[in-house]
From TrEMBL:
This is DUF2184 domain-containing protein. Pfam families: Major_capside. The lineage of its organism: Bacteria, Bacillati, Bacillota, Clostridia, Eubacteriales.
Amino acid sequence: MIYMETAYKKAMDAVMLSGQRGIMPQSPGAIYGPGMDAGGTSTGLVFLAGELEKQDPRLLEPMTSLTAPRDIDMKPGGGWTSITSNVFVDYATSGSDEDSIIGSETNNIPVSQANISKDVFKVHTFSEILRVPLFDELKLQQIGKSLSTILDTGIRLQHSKMIDRNVYVGISKTGTYGLINNPLIVAANAALGASASRLWVNKTPTEIMNDINQLLTNTVIASGYDLSGMASRILIDWSNYGYIANTPVTIAGTQSILSYLLENNIATKQGRPLEIFPLQWCTGAGVGGTQRMMAYVKEESKVNIDLPVPLSRVMTAPNTTSGSYETIFASQFSQVKFLFYTCAAYTDGI
């Protein structure tokens, strides 16, 4: 039995390495067909593996976080421009009687006045070149893919990420700021808790609530007690968001700290439901690299950005020197425009 198996193996090896047709002397019977030599074995199997490969037709792009559309109102349109502006008006009266109360015989009637001013904001021009080598495009078309489409997607992703960064931290080389680092917004340290720590992980749910309520109170006081100026949205770092979302208020564990905060804060009690969102840009944004909490009013009338020109193909031309087609993409977007700085505030050290 052992002899027969050995003879069978030797015969099979001889056929496969000779490249000739052969007949096995023992069962299972006759085998017809060309064998493969050593070179054919390697290249043939590679080809076979390629034919049997199940390829995912999708192009897997880099993972990224784009949250600007969630946190700010964007105003499209306006065309190519250098700046964008808003006009404000303050009201006052002249005269010595600030109450404007007069008697039956008086010659001192206050006069109503209006002071009109304008704030000017910078507009950034974004531009990149999409260069598609002709022969690379033709090669990729053989496998059903388009290099121009791939690069087009890449430019649009880069554009979205630039707007995202502009919304939250501005662009340093143009001297602009974003939502979480504007020097004109009042920033204060979180209060010390009973543990002598400002960190939320060392505070009780009530102490965390006090931090939030104090922040919201600061905005409504600074806005002249106008409830429309009370902040109703909070942005915090992911670590603290995860902590309040997962930690129960009590040992019984029936409610998380996050749910407790959303239901019992002073904004919700005043008919302005509070929203709390995690944001990567809050990490280390506070003074001394601490975690920053931001509260603000997410309304177009309080803070927004302009998008005068959407990302567009401005021009396309062939480049015979490099054998490629080149397309210029361009867009415009403004810096973050705080129309009322009193409607926003920061708390650091949480």
